[in-house]
Amino acid sequence: MTDQSGATRNEKELNEREVADYLHRHPDFFSRHEYLLQEITIPHADTGKAVSLIERQIGVMREQKHQLRQQLHQLTLAAKSNETLLQRFQVLILNLIDSGNLDQAIAYIRDALQEDFHADAVELVLFDCPSRPESIPCEDDRLQPFQRIMQARYPVCGHFKPEQMALLFGKRGEEMASAVVVPLCEDGDNAPCLGLLGIGSIDPKRYHPDMGTVFVSHLGAVMNRIFAAHLER
Question: Do 108 and 221 belong together in one domain?
Fold first, then answer.
């Protein structure tokens, strides 16, 4: 098939690619041929009306400026949110350090995460602590679905199986639609894990795999150290 100039479609496409490649390699082309800037017209993206290349460039720059402003606004909001979160986290850690015993520490963690971090449920599972009501044997079969989390020693956010929710939150497990699981483990591949912290929400979108876990990761490390110290007393 040929167009009015007699060039085949493939030839035309090849020529256009060559022109585009040439302009890409010679970005100063139009500065050496400025008269072309007034002769070249491009359909407007919204109206379809032909506009000059300069007008089109100005429009593109305005749109880019608008997008940059929006991005800056989003970054500003995120920075303010992170600053508030960091302040709350610092208060939480300091109060946790000042806790007099394990019961007091657990109660404070539960209250702080529910009130300041909007969790619907906060529960703790400890391993091999017979004197504690939240303890289970580390060989318990119900812990098998959590083995990867404990081996990775890093919090995981998202949706969990019903049996996992039941172990973490008991009867309330059926209400929780998303959760964060924080392993309370020491550094080192062979170091033992003290337990698991479960943070749950009835909102399925509240906790998701793409959310940041820096704060809860630090919280898990602090909890592991303080809880271990309380258990040794």
Answer: yes
Region 150-177 average pLDDT = 94
Distance CA 48, CA 42 (A): 9
105 and 213 both lie in a single domain: yes
Q: Distance between CA 32 and CA 107 in Å, rounded?
A: 74
Confidence of residue 1 (pLDDT cuts 50, 70, 90): very low
| Within a domain: 126 | yes
The Cα-based distances of 142 to 18, 146, 168, 183 in angstroms read 64, 8, 10, 15
5-49 pLDDT per residue, tens: 555 555 555 688 888 888 888 888 877 877 776 666 666 555 556
3-state SS class at 163: helix
Question: In the numeric block, which tokens belong to residue 230?
Answer: 């309380």
pTM attached to this predicted model: 0.66
Range(s) of the domain holding residue 38: 12-65
Residue 216 near residue 136 (C-beta atoms within 8 A): no
- Distance of alpha carbon 32 from its chain centroid, rounded? 48
The domain total for the chain is 2
How many CA atoms, within 13 angstroms, populate the side-chain half-sphere of residue 182?
24
Q: What angle do CA 191, 170, 164 make, to 5 degrees?
A: 55
Is 180 within the bounds of a domain? yes
What CATH number did the domain enclosing 161 receive? 3.30.450.40
> Is residue 116 domain-shared with residue 193, that is, in the same domain?
yes
